[in-house]
Structures are given as C-alpha cells and as structure tokens.
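Teaching assistant here, posting this on the class forum so everyone can see the example we discussed in section. The complex has two components, and the goal was to see what a joint structure prediction looks like when all of them are supplied at once.
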Amino acid sequence: MIPLSQGPVPATADAVIVGGGINGLATAYELAQQGLKNIVVIEKNYIGSGSTGRCGGGIRQQWTTEENIRLAQESVRMYEGMSAELGYQVFFRQGGYLMITESEADLPALRSAVELQNRCNVPTEFLQPEDCLKIVPDLDISRLKGATFCPKDGTAYPFAVVWGYARACHRKGVRVFIRTAVTGVDSVDGRVTGVQTDRGTISTPLVVNCAGPWARHLAGLFGVELPNRQERHEIMVSESLKPFLDPMVISITDGIYFSQSMRGEIVGGIGDPAEPQLEDPRTFDTRSQLRFAIRFARALTGLYPRARGVRMMRQWAGMYDVTPDHRPILGGVPGLDGYYHICGFSGHGFMLGPMTGRRMARFITTGRPDDIIASLSLDRFENGELQADAFVVG
Amino acid sequence: MSQPKVFLCKCEDVTLEEFREAYREGFTELESLKRYTGVGTGFCQGKSCLSESAIELATLREVPPGEIRLTNIRPPAEPLTFGQLAALDIPDAATAPGAEEDER
C-alpha cells in the first residue's frame, strides 16, 4: 500500500517536510524512527516525480572527498538492508561501478582516489584497460588508459525506494500529501511558524527543505539564500535484454554512464557541457532533445559496439541541484530556528539520501553535533575554503 | 477454473487485474501505475494501452475519463537503434514536443 493522504492538510504538525523524493521521505521516516510524531510530507506532484524518479539509480562509493565517501559508504550499508528494513523490494544489486578514463592525465587522480577510498575501507582497485574485459567482456578498451572498480557499488530502482519509504512512513504515522504545493511560509522573530499550501496552512515549528531543484526557491521564501543552480540532465532506457552487464560503467572522459536494470534495460545518460545553469523554476525545461539521444548513442556504441543493434525505448530529463563545490548542503541556518535544508546533491541525492536522512534526523531531534553535517553546512561558502569533489560525472 | 485473463498492455503482459490490484495498493495516477506495473513501457510505448488505462482508471476512481491525467509522452515516437541514432548529425539544443507541465 502506498498510502496517500486526501483532503485538506492538518492545521498543525510537529514537522513539515517539503519534497516527496528520496531525501524528503528518508528524512520523514528517520524523524519518525527518532520518535517525532505528527510529521507531514508535502509533494507538489507525485512521489519521486522530481529528481529521484528521473535518476539512473546508481549508488557508488568512489568519490574524492572523505565526506562523500563516508556518506556513500553508510548509504550502501543501508541499501544492503533496505528491502528488509522497509519491507519492500527495492531491487538493490551490487554489480560494482567501473570508472574508466581515456586520458593518461587522469591516472594520478584515479590512483589517489583509490588510496583515499581504501583508507576509508572502500574496496576499490585500480585496473589496467585489459583488466576491464574481465568485468565487461565486450567493452572496447582501445582508447582506455585505466580504470577503477569497486565491486560493492551498485544500483537500485529509484521508484521502489521512494515507494518503500512512503509505506514505511505510513506505518509510522507520517502523512504524505501529493499534488500539494507550498505557496508560502511563515516565520516570526527568527523562528519558523508555518507553511502555506494550496490545501491550507500548517502551523509547525519545524520545516525541512528537501525540495531538490526547487530547494533554492523554497529557501528564498524564508529569506535564506542558497548558491544552488539547476541543470537539465538527460537519460534514456533501452529495450530489455538478457543479463549481460554487471556493473555501472561510467566514463570520466565524456561523462557517459550506463548500467543494466533488473528488467534487463540499459539505463544511461551523458552530461552535456552546453546545458545552462538555471535559477528560476519557471525556466526549468525537462523536455527531451534529439541532441542527447545522438550524443549518448555515439558514446555508448563507441565503448560498447554490440549496442549498435539495441533499440532505445524512451528518453527523459530531470534537474540537478548543483552547488559550487558539487557537495550537498545540510543543516540549518543561524538566525532561523526550526528551518533545515537537505539539498544541493549535484546529481547524487539518490545514492547519498538514505544516510543523509538518518544523520539529519538525529541532528534535528537531538541537537548533537555531526561532523559530516558540520562540514557540509551552508556557511562553508562564506568561509571560502571549498573542497570540490573531482568525480562529478554524468 | 480461473477467470480468463484480460491483457491491458500486450507489450509488457500487464493484465487488467494486475492494474486494478496496483490501484488498490495505492497507485492512483497513471504516472505511478506505469512505473509499478510496466503498463505502456513496451514497444508500443503506450500507443495501444494508454487510453484503455486512462478509461479503466477513471472507472476505478469513479470520475469522468477527462479528469485522468495522462502520462508524459517520451520520445522517440518509435524505438530506434543506437546505431541509427549514432549515425545522425548532432543538432544544436532543440527540444522535442511534449511539454511537461508537471515537471517545471
């Protein structure tokens, strides 16, 4: 049962979570686990309709900053137990991630990334091009210069994950409203007091902004300025094939990524440097482009020539919520009690969301400092010491 | 003797009963029903089952069919191979039809 609340929103709530994607639902679930009652989730469209349901479903621990590695590592552990914990099949499969490069110049960075990941107990290894054939037998390795492989990375079905969280939320008494939009917010003397929606106003002392590409806009209603910008990214799915591809293959050279879903489809995308960064949700354009289909097909058939005869079924687009250092923004803001944000995942919210939700729920309910949340707070952009993650691909 | 099966989506073998069961589980919109049951995701990409699905959902929800929101239509109109696509010239950014009001 995916339980959806009908009718007007309640007049009061102990917490309102804005956004029915991975971050909003995981946070709502974890807040309920922490014992918070009377939690409401507000979703403008349908569950997973924002960035979560549009993503490639990849979950990797191969990062170049320790926060990202640790969040991803903890999230992988959660994904390993997620179907059991949520009582819902989320189709998590650990086929590994093969990160490839066609440039000699990338090799030192790949090697030092492996070292950092190994220090964090992530079992990544450096591979020569010919070693890649043991993992993906028909890969065209003629242009490859090296690769890294972590067998514990994987994929899950994004919709199943949010449906599972929504069900688990319901069992905990969380109310999820879809087709409900936030129209305004209320605060008094530096304290959050409520959220206005098109189904009524909710009086609440706690708002968690999990609105993904719309997070910047929502924060703005509270007078909080986020540096996030939004980018369209496109993705596609092929016809179903027999199992032939274990890992997610991802190229740091041209930004293509592709994996095989549990239904047998190739699911993949490719970044496009021509995409502008946007700020205003009214200018978001998630229509599809022929340009993407051609660029993806060229990159895919270049790396995997046997895909030439495989048919593409459909393509779609979604928005990334991108920060200046490509790392998420977590925590609250000084001077506005009761407001928190979990946003700016720069294309990686699905893989980091479960653990972020758990840490943030503990942080919000106990007030205990959290080293990762502290290092990903909004004020890092004012302090000017940014440590960007180098492995932002797709 | 079991009831004969009625197929709603012949590409993906989704029966009418499976569609109704999904609705009872809480998937009350075509966008979610599509992703849960697979209806409309096969070779016809919904051309032969989208309207049937909408009418069935209208019946289940006891509303006029016009109130049922259809799924977003995704390109290409017909499946194309990656070989065919790779052989085309890359145009400048230009969007395909199918504005998605939901997705702004």
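For the discussion questions: Chain A has a mean pLDDT of 95. Residues 219 and 275 of chain A are 24 Å apart (CA to CA). Think about how each of these relates to the inputs above.
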